[in-house]
Automatic annotation (TrEMBL):
It comes from the Bacteria. Residues 15-28 have a biased composition (Basic and acidic residues). InterPro entries: PHP_dom (IPR004013), PHP_domain (IPR052018), Pol/His_phosphatase_N (IPR003141), Pol/histidinol_Pase-like (IPR016195), TAT_signal (IPR006311). Residues 104-179 form the Polymerase/histidinol phosphatase N-terminal domain. PANTHER family: EXONUCLEASE, POLYMERASE_HISTIDINOL PHOSPHATASE N-TERMINAL DOMAIN-CONTAINING PROTEIN. GO terms for molecular function: 5'-3' DNA exonuclease activity; 5'-3' RNA exonuclease activity. This is Histidinol-phosphatase. Residues 1-28, 276-299 are annotated as: Disordered. The lineage of its organism: Bacteria, Bacillati, Actinomycetota, Actinomycetes, Streptosporangiales. Residues 1-14 have a biased composition (Basic residues). It holds the Pfam family PHP.
Length: 580
C-alpha cells in the first residue's frame, strides 16, 4: 500500500519503502514512539493504547497525512513526481538500483562575484567535460550582486542551458547567513527564479543587511530567510528551493544551535552542509601551489566564533570538514537525534589552480555587477586554490529522472554520496532484511523488533585515471554506526557517545566491482549507519579516540597537503528503526 504525504511546502511526496513483509509504504516519524503513530501502514491494532490515543488526536485535528513529520528522521519529504518527460541525459548515465546517479556541484562562482573571474559558460563547459550532470551558480551575496548581479547572471545561465543540454544549470547565490558563515541557496528554474532570489538577497543577506555579527537578532533573521523560501514554494512562486551550509567549520561561525535551528525551522529547505569544502588545491606546497590550508581552512577564532569549538575544528581532515570527519562529532550528534541532515562536496571554484586566465582589464565591479570577461595571462598561476567543477570534488545524487526537480528531490531525500579525486566510480548501498529489497541512502528501514538486518554495499572501483592521471586505489571501507537517542537537551551539543566505526573492510582489489555485507544483527533499538572509504595513504585515530575511530582521516598539514595523495568518499546515512 502506498500513501501520499503532503509536506509543509505543498508538494505531494511519495517516499516509499518496503517493510519486512514486502509491503511498500510511506514513513513519517518523530523521535521515540511517534514513528508508528503517524505511519498509517501500521494498523491501530498493533499500537499501544497510548499510541492509539495520540493517533486519534491527530485524526481529529485533521493532521494525519499532512506532514506532521518535520521534527525528525523520516520527516524526510520524499521525492516528488518525476519531471514530466525525460530530458537530455548522458548516454553513460544508466539507472542503477532504480536511480540515475547524477554527479554535481552546488558551489560555483563567476565574474559576478567580487572575488570571481570566469564566465558562466566557462564553468559549465568545464563541468560538463569533467563529467558533471548538474551544477549551481552561486555568486556571493553583496550589495552589488543584490542590486544588479542577480539579474545580469541569469541570461548567461539561460544561454548556457541551451548550449550544454546534458548538464543542468541552476541559479542560486552564496548567502551570507545572518549571524553565521556562508550557504548555498538555489531555486528550481522558472519565471520567478530571478525575482525570488533578488528579494531573498535584498531582505535576508547578512552583508546586504549589515547583519553578520553573532547576535540573537541576526540569527532570527536567518530563520526568517528560510521561512521566506518555504513560503515562496508553498505559494508556488517557485517550484522548489534548497539551502545548504558551506564550509561550516572554517571560521567557527556556525554554532551547533544555529545549525539545529535552520534545520528545525524548515527541514524541507535547510537540508545539509558541505561535508568537504572546495579550494582543495590550496594545501599544495609552495612553490608548486598556494601552500595554505586545504580548503583555505586557515582561520583562528574571532569575536563571532562560537567559543565551544576546539582548535582542531578550524582545520580539515583528509580534506573534509571537522563537523563531518569526526566520528561521533557534530554531524553524528544531529543524526543521533534522528535529524535528516545531509553532506555534500563541492569545488567553491573562484580562480583555478594552474589556469592561465586573468580577470578582464578595466573592470568596474561595483558599477557593473560583474568583471569583464577573462583574458589570457601568459602563464599558469600556481597561487590559486581551486579546481574546476567536477575535476576533483563530486556530489552524487540518486535521481528518479534527468531533470531539475528530480535532482532537488534527490538532495532533499538524502540519496547522496560524495568523493574526492574519483576514488570510486559508483556506490550502491541498501539496508534490508532477508526478504525485502530494503532502503538506500537517506532512507529509513522500519522493521519488527528483533529483526535481523544487513547492509549490502556494492562499489564500482575507479578503473581509470583521474584528472591527475592516477588510477586511485580504494584501500578500506568503514561502516560507522550510531544509536538514535532522541532530541539533545542542549542545542549546542556537538558529540554523541554511541557512534563509532563498527566494521572495516579491506578491499584488496583495484579493478571492477567489490561487494561487502555488514551484518547489523537483530535490531533492538533505533540506529543509523553511514559509510566512508579511503585510499589509506594518511590515517590517524579520530579525535574522540581509537576506540571510536581507529583509522580516521589525519588532520591536514598547513602548507603541505597534496589533495591527490589523500582521497576519501563518504555516504549519507540510512536509519534502521524497530517498531515497538
Amino acid at each position: 500500500m502506498s500513501h501520499g504525504h503532503t509536506h509543509p511546502h505543498g508538494h505531494s511526496h511519495g517516499h516509499s519503502h518496503d517493510d519486512e513483509h514486502g509491503h511498500t509504504h510511506e514513513h513519517a516519524a518523530d523521535q521515540g514512539d511517534m514513528a508508528p503513530v503517524v505511519d498509517m501502514s501500521i494498523p491501530d491494532s498493533e499500537l499501544s493504547p497510548g499510541q492509539v490515543s495520540r493517533r486519534q488526536m491527530f485524526r481529529r485535528a485533521g493532521l494525519l497525512g499532512a506532514g506532521i513529520t518535520a521534527a525528525g528522521v523520516l520527516g524526510t519529504p520524499g521525492q516528488a513526481a518525476a519531471d514530466s518527460g525525460k530530458s537530455y541525459g548522458r548516454s553513460n548515465c544508466e539507472p542503477r538500483d532504480g536511480y540515475l546517479w547524477l554527479a554535481g556541484d552546488h558551489h560555483i562562482h563567476t565574474q559576478h562575484s567580487s572575488d570571481g573571474m570566469y564566465r558562466v559558460i566557462d564553468h559549465v563547459q568545464h563541468a560538463n567535460a569533467y563529467g558533471l550532470d548538474w551544477m549551481v551558480i552561486t555568486d556571493h551575496g553583496s550589495v552589488a550582486h543584490a542590486k544588479i548581479g542577480v539579474d545580469k547572471v541569469n541570461p548567461d545561465i539561460v544561454a548556457a542551458r541551451k548550449v550544454i543540454k546534458d548538464t543542468l544549470v541552476f541559479q542560486g547565490l552564496e548567502w551570507n547567513i545572518p549571524g553565521a558563515e556562508h550557504g548555498t541557496v538555489f531555486v528550481a528554474p522558472g519565471r520567478n527564479e530571478v525575482a525570488t532570489l533578488k528579494e531573498f538577497e535584498n531582505s535576508f543577506d547578512g552583508s546586504v543587511k549589515n547583519a553578520t555579527a553573532s547576535t540573537p537578532q541576526n540569527e532570527a533573521l536567518a530563520i526568517a530567510g528560510l521561512n521566506f523560501l518555504a513560503e515562496a514554494v508553498k505559494k508556488r512562486r517557485v517550484d522548489d528551493a534548497l539551502f545548504l551550509a558551506n564550509h561550516p567549520a572554517r571560521k567557527g561561525l556556525d554554532s551547533p544551535h544555529e545549525i539545529r535551528g535552520w534545520r528545525d525551522a524548515q527541514p524541507s529547505i535547510a537540508v545539509g552542509m558541505e561535508g568537504a569544502p572546495g579550494h582543495q588545491a590550496a594545501g599544495i606546497p609552495k612553490p608548486n601551489g598556494p601552500g595554505s590550508g586545504r580548503g583555505f581552512y586557515d582561520s583562528t577564532p574571532s569575536a563571532d566564533s562560537w567559543p565551544g569549538y576546539p582548535a582542531e575544528s578550524y582545520k580539515t581532515f583528509g580534506g573534509f570538514d571537522w563537523m563531518t570527519s569526526t566520528v561521533g562529532g557534530l554531524w553524528d550528534s544531529l543524526l543521533a537525534e534522528g535529524k535528516t541532515w545531509w553532506i555534500t562536496a563541492n569545488s567553491d571554484a573562484h580562480t583555478v589552480y594552474q589556469d592561465t586566465s586573468l580577470r578582464g582589464p578595466n573592470s568596474d565591479f561595483e558599477a557593473n555587477g560583474r568583471y569583464n570577461d577573462p583574458v589570457y595571462g601568459g602563464g599558469p598561476v600556481l597561487t590559486q586554490g581551486d579546481f574546476w567543477p567536477g575535476y576533483y570534488s563530486r556530489t552524487h545524487v540518486g535521481a528518479t529522472d534527468f531533470g531539475y526537480g528530480a535532482v532537488m528531490d534527490a538532495m532533499r531525500a538524502g540519496r547522496i554520496w560524495v568523493d574526492h579525486g574519483g576514488l570510486i566510480s559508483g556506490l550502491i548501498v541498501r539496508a534490508r532484511t532477508s526478504d525485502t529489497r530494503g532502503v538506500t541512502l537517506g532512507g529509513a528501514l522500519h522493521v519488527r523488533q528483533g529483526s535481523k538486518v544487513e547492509v549490502s554495499i556494492e562499489i564500482t572501483l575507479a578503473n581509470r585515471p583521474n584528472w591527475a592521471q592516477v588510477i586511485p586505489t580504494l584501500a578500506r571501507v568503514d561502516v560507522i554506526q550510531g544509536d538514535v537517542t532522541g532530541p539533545a537537551s542542549n542545542k549546542d551539543t556537538f558529540t554523541t557517545p554511541k557512534t563509532k566505526v563498527v566494521k572495516s573492510f579491506e578491499v584488496n582489489k583495484n579493478t571492477g566491482t567489490v561487494s561487502f555485507t555488514y551484518n547489523v544483527g537483530a535490531v533492538d533499538r533505533p540506529i543509523y549507519v553511514r559509510l566512508r572509504g579511503t585510499d589509506g595513504n594518511r590515517t590517524a585515530p579520530g579525535l574522540l579516540g581509537a576506540s571510536v575511530d581507529p583509522n580516521g582521516p589525519a588532520i591536514d598539514v598547513f602548507g603541505d597537503a597534496d589533495p591527490w595523495k589523500d582521497l576519501w568518499f563518504y555516504s549519507n546515512p540510512i536509519w534502521i528503526l524497530p517498531r515497538r
